Amino acid sequence: MSPKYAKTFGFTEMLAYWQMEANIEPKKMKIPENLVTEYTTKDWREVNAEQLEAYDLTICPRARRKIIRPWFEQDQSYTRVAFERNQNIVGYCTIRVINLNRLCTAPFYAENVHVAEQLLAGIRGMGIIPNFQNFEKIIFWYPEVNKDVERLLQKFAPDGGFSVHVDFRTQFTKTIIEARDEVVYAVSCSVHQFV
């Protein structure tokens, strides 16, 4: 679709790398032992909205306050926010139920793989998602430049319960909107194809 979008709709600016799709089977997921304990997670409702918006602006330069809350409030969406010891936000993760008995991480940002582990363990381990084991898969759409996503999945599915493949390119009309893609473990929405 890249040439068609460029020619027909003017989406001529493109990132140099692909967006990947990773799938993990919930029934094969295990919470790893010995996770780093310097990070804690909270339900997003317990977090100051201005602090969350300020963190989000470090990921994407667009003010998204009006869309963050609807992401989190969607029916069957589950969100945790990660903090370091001094209570600075270092990531957040939303997992939502989508069609065909699947789950989707969207969005999922973490300053490092240890933060990502705490967020995923917080949602998975706390029994937040009803009937978690019965879902077919969890989908992650993420920038190819974040090599830690596969490390994360290997830790949670050590017996090979996940797969990764190239999925799509991100295209823009006039200027590429820069984002810190190295901390993006899942984009906000594959339809928008942007952080």
From TrEMBL:
It comes from the Eukaryota. Signal peptide: none annotated. Pfam families: Acetyltransf_18. Residues 54-123 form the YitH/HolE acetyltransferase (GNAT) domain. PANTHER family: N-ACETYLTRANSFERASE DOMAIN-CONTAINING PROTEIN-RELATED, PROTEIN CBG01304-RELATED. This is YitH/HolE acetyltransferase (GNAT) domain-containing protein. It comes from Caenorhabditis elegans.
